[in-house]
Predict the 3D structure of the following.
Amino acid sequence: MSAAPLGNRAHNGAVEAAVAELWGSAGLDAEAIGHLHCPGEGFVLPSSFAVASAAQTSLAAAALAAAEIGYLRGGRRDSVTVERNHATQECRAYLALDGRRNDPWDKLSGLYPCGAGSSAGWVRIHANFAHHRDGALRLLGLPAGAATERSAVEAALSKWDALDFEAAAAEAGLVVAALRTREQWLAHEQARAIASLPVVSWQRIGDAAPNRLGALSEGAPPLDQLRVIDATRILAGPVGTRALAAWGADVLLVNGPHLPNIVNLAETSRGKRSALVDLRAADGRAQFAELLRGADVMVEAYRPGALAARGFGAHDAARLRPGIVYGSLCAYGHLGPWSGRRGFDSLVQTATGFNRDEADAAGSAEPRALPMQVLDYASGYLMAFGVAAAVVRQQREGGSWHVRVALATTGNWLRGFGRDAAGLAVDAEPITDFLEETDSGFGRLSAVRHAVAFDQRRLAAFRRSDVPGSSAATWLPRAS
C-alpha cells in the first residue's frame, strides 16, 4: 500500500483492504475475510497520521487469524467484529490503580533541543528505567539519580550536537534518538537496509510434523490450550501476548528476577500467569528449556541476539521444540547497522521522522509526538497476527516458524494509510465508556476492556494481572 499525500482521507474505509493485504501475505484462506466486520470511520485521536486505521487493522487481522485457528479446530468460521473507536482506545495505554491515574513517564524523558538556539538539532531521551536515566546523566556529566532536574539536562545538552549525542549514547548502550526528518531517515543506512522488509515476515526454520491442538469444546475461545511463552517486556510484545491470552491461550510471562518493570505491567499482564526464571544461571536455563519443550509459541522482544547468546534463539528453540512458532520483536529491524540497537516507540518515532512530520502538519517549530504509542501497539497486534498465522500454517503443513516484526517497519506500514492534516484539529474521543475495573495484584485496576467480539466463541475470562513471580514456571495441564 503506497503512501498517500497530505490531505488524502484514504484511511477512512481502508481497513478491510489493509487486512486483506496482510492476510494474503500470510498465505491464508481468502474466504475468511468475508467474516470480518470493522465498523466505524474517521478520526479518533488528533494526528495527521491514520493512527486509528493502524490500530483497527492490526487488531482485526490478529483476531481473524485467531478465529481461523478456531475454525481449523472444528466448527464454522467465526464472524469477527472490531470497532474502530474501541480498538483505538485500547491502544492508549490507559490504566489507573486504586483510582489514581499512573504516569509512566520519568520527568527526564522527552525531547530536548541541542546546541545554541537548537541549531544543532533535537534528541529524545528515554529515562523510564533508572539505569537508562542514570547512564544518560553520566554521559552528560550530571549526577545520577532522581534529584537531577530537567533544566540541568537542557543546559548540558546545549553543548552537544544531536547526532553526536545519539552516537555517544548508542556506544554506551543507552536509549537515545536524534530527531530526523523523513528525508533524513530515508537517506540513513538503517532505513535503506530495511526498506524492502515486509511489516510481518515468516520464515520456516525447521521441519516438524503438525502439532495438532485438538478440537474445541462448544463456545471455547479459539486459542484454548495453546501454550505461549511471553519473553517480552515493554508494551509491543506484552500487548500482543495479552491479545493471545484474551483469545484463550495459556500465556506464561517469564521475567528475569533482576530486571526492572514499568507500571504498564499491571495492565498488559491481564490474562497471563507470571513467573521468574533467571537465564544467567545454569538451573534457570534448564528450567526455561523445559518450558520451551512444552510450548507451542514463544514471543521475545529482547535486544537482537541477546536470547541466542543464552541458547534460546529461534533456531535453538526449533531444535528444542520442533514445530515451535517463534516471534521476534525489535525496534529498528533485524538487518542493518542498527539491528542490535535498543529502542522504544517514542525513540523510533523521533528517529524515523514522525515527530518532525507531525509538527510540520501542525505548523509547530517544536517536534510533536503521535497521540499514542501506535508503533508499539500496532507492532504488538501485528506480532499476534503473525504468530496466529504461523500456527495456522503449522497446523496445515508442519514446520517450525520464525515470525519477525519491527517498530520501524510498522512505521513504514502506518505511512501507507496516508495522511490528513485535518486530523490534528479533532478532539480525542472520550475513553470512559470503554473502561472496566478488576482486581489485580497491583491494586484495583481500571483499564480498557478488549475490543474484539467473536460471534460463536467467547473471549477468555481474563485471569487477574499479578506481580512477577506469582506463578510457578510450569504449564497448566491440558484437558484430555
Summary: Confidence is low (pLDDT under 50) at residues 1-12. The chain has two domains: 15-102+197-337+367-454, 110-192. The domain at 110-192 is CATH 3.30.1540 (formyl-coa transferase, domain 3). The radius of gyration is 22 Å.
